[in-house]
Amino acid sequence: MTARTTRAWPIGLAAAVVLAAAGPALAAPPAAPPGTARVVLRSTDVDTGAPLPGARFELWREANDLAGLQSAGRAADEKQSSGCLTDAKGVCSVELPVGETYYAVQVAVPAGYDRPDEPFAGFDLGQGAAREGTVVNVPNRRRGAAYGGGIRVRKKDGKTGAPLAGAVFEIWKETNGTTGLQTAGVDADQRPRPGCATDADGTCDFEGLADGAYFLVEKDVPEGYVLPKNPVAGPWRMDGASGRRLVLTVYNKRAEQIPTTGGNDGRRARTARAGAPVE
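Now predict its structure.
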C-alpha cells in the first residue's frame, strides 16, 4: 500500500477533546441505592459504532491485589452475582458498590461477531461514580471482517529528530458524528485496536483498520520527556484514495529543569512544554 505521511505538532494541536460524562446518559434510570453506582455496559461494532444486542457480561471485583483479572485458582478475584445482557440499544446496566476496582468480561458475543481484542475491561468506581455512574464500552468486530488499513506512529525527539522508544499511543475512530473525540459515555467514539508502544526504532503500528477518520492519543512518554498538555491529535481521514495507510510523526521536547531565582534554595524548576516545529 502507498503510505501518506502526516506531521503532528504538537500532538493535539487544534484538536477538540470532549470527555463525555456518564451522568446525562444515566438520567433516565432510577438512582442507584446509597453506596453503589450504576454501571452501563455498552456493546458496539468496532468499525461503525452501531449498537449490538445480545452481548452478555460478567462482573468481577479486584480482590487479590494482582494486576489484571484472575478468574480461576485459589488467588482468583471475586465474581459478582450481577451480570447483564445488552438490549436492542446495545446497553445493559448493573449496580455495584463504590470504592472498588472491577472487571467486565464479555462471556457471550452478539450474533455474527468475534470476541473483543482485549479479554476484559477494568474500571474503578470512585465516590463520584455514585452520582454520575460509569459507562464501560466493549467493542466487537464482525466475524470475517478484514481490512487492509493501517496507521504507523513515529516518535521523535523534537530537537534532534532521534527516534524514541517507549511512547504509548491509542487510536480512536470517529463514529458518533460529533465534532472532536469523545472517549466516555453511551455515545463515545470507538477504540478499534489495543494501544501500542514505540519500539527501538521509535515506531508502533495499528493494523487491520477500516476506512474512516481517526484520532491519535498519546498516553505515556519516554522517560525524561513531557506529556503534551493536549495529548489528542486529529482527526485524519484514511480511505482508499490515500492508500489506506497513514504515517504520523510525533515530536516531544525533553523535560528541562532551568535554574531561576526564588525558592528555599535559590532555585526553582521549570518544565519545558512539549512540541516541535512542523517538518
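The radius of gyration is 21 Å.
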